[in-house]
Amino acid sequence: MSVIRQPGVLGRTTRRRLVGVSVALAAATVETLAIGLWFVLLVGSPSTATALAGLGILFCGSLLRTAIFGFAANELNQLLRPWRLGAALALTAGWIVWLFVAEAIGGTAGLVAGTVILAGVLTGQFLLERRVFRFRSPDGLEVAPLLSATLLAAGGAALLASVWVVDLTVVSPPVAVDTTTFVIRIETIQIGALAFGLFAFVAHQRRFQRLLSS
């Protein structure tokens, strides 16, 4: 029977899609802000204070993103259980390992190695997150977490490449408004952050849509 004749089914499908897009957008926004701020603090001239501040921002972002996953799982309560807190810690550690490996190796090789390792770590973190929030794959396949992790790792590579590989600044002509003159300045790292945000949204939209359909 056509779903057109089953408004209840169509309504549930539409709601799932809306919820999937909403939580994916929230997760991507949180992750982009947290990773972006942490990254900017570390790639400049890091001190002990900025390193600690960056670590705090990264962990808070990871914890909030895990909370968004818990909201989608209808299990936001008891978020601070050890295993669920461990999912946020695993996410934080994944990004730290990514940047450490990339900087330790350096150059294009470091960029590639860090991206591959990050994709593997994020796949494990996604699987851990699903397990502790009691999500089950409907067909037993675990391909979706790998695809989402690869997309998110590609976003991380774009962010890192915007600092290491591409050096570009676009400055608009001066614009006068009354007695004030200003210019619009776009730097490569801003483009890299935007690319990361887009990759993060697509990655989370894929995983949330699949999980909510299970």
Automatic annotation (TrEMBL):
UniProt keyword annotation of Membrane present:
yes
Sorted UniProt keywords:
Membrane, Transmembrane, Transmembrane helix
Q: Which domain of life is it from?
A: Archaea
Q: Kindly list the residue ranges recorded as spanning the membrane.
A: 21-43, 49-71, 83-101, 107-128, 140-162, 182-203
Query: What is the name of the protein in this document?
Result: Uncharacterized protein
Q: From which organism does this entry originate?
A: Natrarchaeobius chitinivorans
